[in-house]
Write a structure and sequence with these properties.
Layout (H helix, E strand, L loop, with lengths): L1 E5 L6 H12 L2 E4 H11 L2 H11 L6 H12 L8 E4 L5 H13 L6 E6 L2 H17 L10 H15 L1 H8 L3 E5 L4 H111 L1 H25 L1
Parallel strand pairs: 1-3, 1-4, 2-3, 4-5
């Protein structure tokens, strides 16, 4: 879980940060503490910040970003972190975005604790009065006058971050005027909803990956099944083909035999008629052979009679 806590001074950011640390096992990244730790560790960035702080100047954004980068690389920040007090301006937020992008770190949410300034001033006044009544020393920066100045600075510099992160859909607003317990419950509810929403796309991508692996496995399995089926079906297929061929050849043979017999029968019928005609012709031929002279004599007699009739007609005429 990687968070940024936004809110004016006195909104209860420190209290809620400690509760989130214990709940999620993450670390709090406070710029003031990180600067002091870097100076104490004498890191290159810490030495640079030391000289600036010693001269009374404000530590520039690039130095602060360098310290945050070093702190994020430490093992205890691997599970997540809460940035409290940074970024304070839009340029710092832009620089932080670039740093997270380089480190491939995803910012989960920016939690804004929205409070009423007049109510905050009343809280401070009552707290200061209670401390003085108990005889406790009041901090210099914990007075209504100092708080008014800090609130004005927050409105000018830090409040534009609300618009910056809302445009990037990172801003989650919680009513900071509720009791501490209620604020904690609301923050936990929102963060659990974010975790559930982020888990769904991860589940979908995992499901898609499973589908892809299954789709890759299925064709391979199908190929192996086809191969084994081919191997197993070859002898059976050969037997089936042989049986089918035998049946087909038998049927074809029977049909061919039938057609041949029909054709033979049809061919026999004209042969019989031709035989009869041939017999009658042979009979006539035999008859003409037996009586050739008679036929010729009869014919000559007929011609002679016709000639006589013609001459008689001419004589009468």
């Amino acid at each position: 879980m990687r968070l940024i806590l936004l809110g004016p001074p006195g909104a209860g950011k420190g209290t809620q940060a400690q509760r989130l640390i214990h709940r999620h096992g993450i670390v709090q990244l406070s710029t003031g503490e990180m600067l002091r730790a870097a100076v104490a560790a004498q890191t290159p960035v810490g030495l640079k910040a030391k000289d600036i702080m010693a001269s009374g100047g404000l530590v520039p954004d690039d130095v602060v970003i360098g310290i945050i980068s070093e702190r994020m690389d430490q093992p205890d920040a691997a599970k997540g972190f809460i940035l409290d007090g940074f970024p304070r301006t839009v340029p710092q937020a832009q620089a932080l975005d670039e740093l997270l992008k380089k480190k491939h770190i995803h910012l989960d949410a920016v939690v804004e604790l929205r409070v009423n300034e007049s109510a905050l001033l009343q809280r401070v006044e009552s707290r200061v009065a209670e401390m003085r009544a108990r005889g406790e020393e009041v901090r210099i920066d914990d007075t209504p006058e100092v708080l008014s100045k800090r609130l004005a600075s927050y409105r000018t510099l830090t409040e534009p971050l609300i618009h910056y992160y809302s445009e990037r859909r990172k801003l989650l607003t919680v009513d900071g005027m509720m009791t501490i317990e209620h604020v904690t419950r609301e923050i936990n509810r929102i963060l659990s909803a974010i975790g559930a929403a982020e888990a769904k796309p991860a589940h979908k991508s995992a499901h898609k990956a499973d589908r892809k692996t299954e789709s890759v496995r299925r064709p391979k399995a199908a190929k192996t099944v086809k191969k084994t089926a081919k191997k197993a079906s070859k002898p059976a297929a050969r037997k089936a083909v042989k049986k089918a061929a035998k049946k087909a050849s038998k049927k074809a043979g029977k049909k061919a035999a039938k057609t041949v017999s029909k054709r033979a029968k049809n061919a026999k019928k004209p042969s019989k008629a031709a035989g009869k005609a041939a017999k009658s012709a042979s009979k006539k031929a035999k008859a003409s052979r037996k009586f050739p002279a008679k036929s010729k004599a009869g014919a000559s007699r007929k011609t002679k009679k016709a000639a006589k009739k013609v001459t008689k007609k001419r004589a009468k005429a």
